[in-house]
Design a protein that fits this description.
The complex is a heterodimer of chains A (about 375) and B (about 160). Chain A is mainly beta. Chain A is built from 2 helices and 17 strands. Chain A has a single domain, classed as Beta Barrel (Porin). Chain A has a 16-stranded antiparallel beta barrel with strand order 1-3-4-5-6-7-8-9-10-11-12-13-14-15-16-17. In chain A, a hairpin with a 2-residue loop joins β3 and β4. Chain B has one domain: Periplasmic binding protein-like II (D-Maltodextrin-Binding Protein, domain 2, 3-Layer(aba) Sandwich). In chain B, strands 2-8-1-7-5-6 form a 6-stranded mixed sheet. Chain B is globular, with a radius of gyration of 20 Å. The N terminus of chain B is likely disordered. The chains are: A mainly beta (about 375), B alpha/beta (about 160). Chains A and B meet through β1, β3, β4, β5 and β15 of A and α1, α2, α4 and α5 of B.
Amino acid sequence: MGHLHTAIRTNVIAAAFAVSLVAPVVASAQPDHASQDQPQSGTGVEYPSLHLSGFADIDFATQAKSEGPRGFSEGQFVLHLASALSPRVNFFGEVSFTPRADAGTGSPPATGFNAEVERAIIRFDQSDRLKVSFGRYHTPVNWWNTAFHHGQWLQTTISRPEMAQFGGKFIPVHFVGGLVEGSLPAGGLNVNYQAGVGNGRGNVISRAGDAGDNNARPAWVLNLFTKPDRVFGLQVGGSLYADRVSLPGQPEFDERIIAAHAVWQHEDPEVIAEIADVRHTQDGAALTTSSLAYYVQAAYRLPSFARLWKPYYRFEHIDIDPADPVFAGVLNLDGSTIGVRYDISSYAAIKTEARTKERASNQPRTNGWFLQIAFTF
Amino acid sequence: MGRSVRHIAHRVLPLAIGCLVAAGPATVVAQEKGDVAVVVNRDVPVDNLSLSELRRLVLGDREFWPESVRVTLLIRAPVAHERDVILKTVCQMTEAQFRQHWIGKVFRADTAVAPKIVYSNEMSIDLLNRTTGAIAFVDAPQAGTNLKVVKIDGRLPGDPGYLLR
């Protein structure tokens, strides 16, 4: 009973927090029909103004069967919707269609596509300092996860770092809830913040709690980063994420993620480095585990006549605590990716890369070669 | 199976890549012109911007003027001298990088509204005058006296050391 009261109190506090944050913003976002929802004079803007764009990719791979598909494969077919509902209210949606070998029925199952609502966000913009949104997000606990989403064309490489892989378990890729964000000039430091509360991992920890939280403890995330004026292109930041992980048939664990990133966003060079420590503490027991992952990626847009070429290299490392039951089945990794991207137009690119992975010191390395044609439309 | 995969790798892929490469990027030629004036709608409560502030506006990192007036960015279509100056001097980006930046910006849900493309200085000025919160970039002599020209780092077009030229 006491546990129930604690749970109710925690959720009520979270809800009150969210409502108190959004109230003033929603109030200012109310349709003032004289000025808000009407077209801005002369601009021809009408609401809602829906903008649709898409991303797709075609892939070819030669690799060990245990590491993924071989031969040609369709990548995700992604549709992105952005719609201004008024000058201060926006909706963002991202829908993906993912080819799967087991999407259909029958035995063996037929191949097909899985449709998924990756993101659905409604946001109220009060000012640059305060924006409040609700929906399904890519969790802002990892830079890559919020920079590239499902658009393969946007990222330099073919593959995402394994720590931020879709369907992976290391970080919670998705998050359902509310988010407060904004940026403060801070004397040219341009400090940005994101603070969110919502449903963390679901019963399957690679999935978010889309249909409700699976326990009475909401997940919290705080992300802070700076983009200083004096060093244009640099972004440095860190994140903190806390959740209660409840897996069927297992004790509950408190999860705490501390992450940091540093990104040099110019293309000559482009440097991305991220690190995350995931700590799991068993509820009511002494078991505490810590797993670490990081990657460093460097790329360089070649000058003058070769400017369409962008070679790159990434090293990544994942070290899973073997005593961690939450990450059972998650593999260690020491891996390198080397490749080149060629931009065949402003909206399409061909990438090719070679990967080598070592899962354990007593196992042989696996190697693979990959080709991708990625584009936006 | 192994032979057929090798056959594809050797024959089909080079052909496909060749076709795609042949499509090639369009060549962009900038026109030779003078200073570019940064002009804003009369309602915008700003007289001076630093280059960093201007960069944040053009890249969509800043979406509001003081008093929470939303910024409407009017930017010339590719090839225009005004766009070329803004991309090179302010954003330090190529045309392709600028396009990718804004596609990513919208895709990341940072903003729902990309810059509005205008095709002439006259169109820029016309929309600017009719759009609350608008900012545009026009050939300085065409800015005239009726437009609100914003200083960049304390300098107006024609001043020594003015950056946007």
